[in-house]
Specification:
Helix content: 40-55%
CATH architecture of the largest domain: 2-Layer Sandwich
CATH superfamily of the largest domain: Ribonuclease H-like superfamily/Ribonuclease H
Strand order of the largest sheet: 5-4-1-2-3-6
Number of helices: 12
Oligomer: single chain
CATH class of the largest domain: Alpha Beta
Number of strands: 6
Strand content: 5-15%
Low-confidence stretches: 114-118, 308-328
Structural class: alpha/beta
């Protein structure tokens, strides 16, 4: 007994027959294909001459919008973020419909790879006495209450470069970052100085994982000067600095694992573009109600009412990033603020 096919199934079969007929080299007789696939050849010819339905036209228009959103995300957005982007532009869409159209067109988001690389190098000669003020409770009631810091490496054909970041837990925004060619303390100091320059925070908790850069006397002195409260988790434990590790996993998934760079300058520019051109202003987060970090801060601007005003800072130019000479540390915080 032949199973009766639904209307959608019949349409898909007709599309299959039509695709076969378009391939002149491998085309089969229409009546043979229809008989094997259990549809009528007369129905196929009627379908072929029929004008596209309103639903088909609407799906085609929606698919074009989906393709545009997916392309703007550099192919990283899946169904949830594509839906959020479409809705943000005033288009009411059903998530299942978007998922079906993306599947039909072969569009999919990127997924994180398992595992991580430990870049923490603990100074065994230093006995860290800094307490863990976070205890894996990655939650903040407002901006500049809790910052997370960490370092990762980025491979290039010319060798490794290192990225240090400072992340505000409240908005997931990268408020400070620096790029260098070694793991000396100047790298994390540059990231901290950028965060202090842009946010003007006092009494903020700065949490890290006991890397030798963070346990150094120079870094501790800078924190004391600026009223920053250091906090340290255990060494090499991703769960003790989970949100920073989550950002690095996203960076790995969406950028590093999908690109390769011949020079360190190219990698620097790619990291700058990702953080300042995509992640902070545009990348949507489910934890933020599908807002980007900067959109979330704009929506909750009242939370900054008691915060000191931020000063403008100079961003690195293209020339500075692609110049032949590579400075030991590269980040947007050109000026170093003095303690009040």
């Amino acid at each position: 007994m032949v199973r009766r096919q639904g209307r959608q199934d019949v349409h898909r079969v007709y599309e299959l027959v039509s695709a076969n007929q378009a391939d002149a080299a491998n085309a089969m007789p229409v009546h043979t294909m229809c008989r094997v696939l259990n549809v009528s050849s007369s129905g196929y010819y009627a379908w072929l001459g029929r004008a596209p339905s309103a639903r088909t036209l609407a799906n085609a228009a929606l698919l074009e919008r989906i393709r545009a959103v997916h392309a703007e995300s550099d192919g990283t957005y899946g169904r949830a973020r594509v839906c959020a982007e479409l809705r943000a532009h005033g288009l009411l869409v059903n998530a299942k419909r978007v998922a079906a159209l993306m599947r039909q067109d072969g569009l999919q988001g990127v997924s994180r790879r398992r595992g991580f690389v430990v870049t923490t190098q603990r100074d065994r000669a230093v006995s860290a006495k800094t307490a863990d003020l976070v205890n894996r409770a990655f939650h903040a009631e407002g901006p500049n209450r809790l910052w997370l810091a960490d370092i990762t490496y980025v491979p290039t054909w010319a060798g490794f470069i290192y990225l240090a970041i400072v992340l505000d837990v409240w908005s997931r925004r990268i408020v400070g970052w620096a790029i260098g060619e070694d793991l000396r303390v100047q790298l994390v100091l540059a990231a901290l100085n950028m965060a202090l320059t842009t946010r003007r925070a006092k009494g903020v908790i700065h949490h890290n994982d006991q890397g030798s850069q963070y346990t150094s006397l120079e870094f501790g002195k800078r924190c004391a000067e600026m009223g920053v409260r250091p906090s340290m988790g255990s060494v090499g434990d991703a769960y003790d600095n989970a949100m920073a590790e989550s950002f690095f996993a996203t960076l790995e998934c969406e950028l590093i694992a999908r690109r390769s760079w011949r020079t360190k300058a190219e990698a620097r520019m790619a990291l700058f573009t990702y953080i300042e051109g995509w992640y902070n202003p545009r990348r949507r987060h489910s934890a933020l109600g599908q807002c980007s970090p900067m959109q979330f801060e704009e929506k909750n601007a009242h939370a900054f009412a008691r915060q000191p005003p931020c000063r403008e800072h100079g961003l690195p130019t293209v020339g500075a990033c692609v110049a032949g000479a590579t400075p030991p540390v590269d980040n947007p915080a050109a000026e170093v603020i003095e303690p009040a």
